[in-house]
Amino acid sequence: MHCISLPSSHLPLYSPPKTSFKLACHVSPRMSLNDNNNTSSSSGNGFSLINNISKLLWGPSLPPGLLISTVRTAWTSTWQLMMSQLAPSDPSGGYTRPPSKFRLSRQNPTATSTKIHLYVGLPCPWAHRTLIVLALKGLEEAVPVSIAAPGLDGSWEFKDLPDKDKSWDRDILVPSRDKVNGCRNLKEVYRLRKGGYNGRATVPMLWDMDKKEVICNESYDIIEFFNSGINGLAQNPGLDLSPVELKGKIEEWNRVIYPNVNNGVYRCGFAQSQEAYDAAVNGLFSTLDRIDDHLGGSRYLCGDRLTLADICLFTTLIRFDLVYNVLFKCTKKKLLEFSNLHGYMLDIYQFLGARPSIKDDSRISTQISLHLNHLKQAQVASHVKELDPKGCCHLQFSGDYGWLLPDSFSIKSWQHSTCYALRL
Predict the structure, then answer these.
(1) Span 34-52, average pLDDT
(2) Alpha-carbon dihedral sign for residues 261, 267, 268, 273
(3) Which residues contact 112 (CB under 8 A, 6 or more apart)?
(4) CA-CA distances (angstroms) from residue 294 to 9, 221, 314?
(5) What pLDDT is stored for residue 205 in this prediction?
(6) Which residues are paired to 157 by β-bridges?
(7) What is the maximum alpha-carbon separation in the chain?
(8) What is the pLDDT of residue 82?
(9) Which in 75, 159, 192, 246 has the greatest CB count within 10 A?
């Protein structure tokens, strides 16, 4: 790993005592060459049959034009039908995110007077922000979490890991079973509410364990609630990520960052016309340029204090080069090329990693590290495996991930190849 320092225009990173270690990668041993060949042969039987048929029909020549045009038309029509459900668009082809169905009202005391449970999915940036605030406020014991994983059909499913995969640190989040309702997938949980539910089953979702009701599935409502709504249950009630004197600035930044950056990367990836893509990508990078300029004279978005606005931006930035740049075609620049944004992201990462644990004197960093290869695979699985029959995951960043994390920031959980509150 390489030691990365912030640009001179940004404040220096926190640097704990340097500890050298090699990144431990979990590698499943190959039992035998025969086993590997059998697996490859089995997985390729379908394609071998297709190849044999194609050779029989037209030999080494290209498929006839009629076949190509027919398949292209069928694929395009099927893709448009599927995307109309997965990523609905406006008449210009621009992605239109459906609004959250369940909102948490400030006047609604339900969530403060009942047992609550949080449902998340690790690849989801919107769920990621709730896990960060949950950890920073010390709410892990008060608000238990069930973790879903992307299923083959794109829905969120619960998994009970084999015993061999349960040997990690007890503080690390991994996909799990539904700890409250015992459901197989998140859609079943939503349907348990009174009157049922046939809409989109999204994460994060806050669940009323007593009434078996969805309290909220809007991420920003949830992080505001975690920040100030249940301080009586928090182990770190003094931390305020949305102080009264900064609320105006926080809301102002949210109005800029949400449509152009948080949702902007999705608008790039899910655009269904060139016009929509151009508008989305230009809005994204002009906003990143604006934020980069602002950070030349400010440690965080609202000054020297970390706020909810920073956390919401961070969960997009940490994914940018590894996922959005490639998968969602956000290719004008990498985050690494910005003078201040990359250092800002590392600063927040280290701020979170260096927070003293509420429970003991050890550092909370073991709970909020991340495994980047898992992030890439999970994000690809949740968005494009439906589009690619082979489910191939792109290769990127050969070697270590020194571009992202400074060598001086050694983290125990890197060696576990998993994470907690920053699990993506």
Answers:
(1) 55
(2) negative
(3) 229, 230
(4) 11, 26, 15
(5) 97
(6) 149, 185
(7) 74
(8) 65
(9) 246
374-387 residue pLDDT tens: 454 455 445 544 44
Look up residue 47 and give its amino acid: F
Token representation of residue 343: 């250092």
Residues 405/345, Cβ–Cβ less than 8 Å: no
Output the CA torsion sign for 100, 149, 412, 338: negative
Q: Which of 190, 266, 277, 344 is catalytic?
A: 266
Q: pLDDT, tens digit, for every residue of 175-192?
A: 889 999 999 999 999 999
Which residues are CB-contacts of 90 (< 8 A; sequence separation ≥ 6)? 96, 276
Output the six-digit token pair for 75.
Answer: 């694929």
Structure tokens at 115: 């047992």
The pLDDT confidence band at residue 93, using thresholds 50, 70 and 90, is confident
Active site residue 124: yes
| H helix runs in 106-238, sequence order | 125-137, 186-191, 219-228
Long-range contacts of 298-302 (CB under 8 A, 24+ apart): 299/10, 299/11, 299/344, 299/347, 300/344, 300/348, 301/249, 301/250, 301/253, 302/246, 302/249, 302/250, 302/253
Joined together, the tokens standing for residue 242 give 């949305």
The DSSP call for residue 157 is E
Q: How far apart are CA 109 and CA 104, in angstroms?
A: 9
The one catalytic residue among 95, 124, 268, 420: 124
Decide if 258 is catalytic. no
Helix, strand, coil percentages for the chain (3-state, nearest 5): 45, 5, 50
Mean pLDDT of the region 224-232: 94
| Cα distance between residue 234 and residue 344, in whole Å | 27
For residue 149, the SS3 value is strand
Tell me: cis bond preceding 204? Omega within 30 of 0 counts: yes
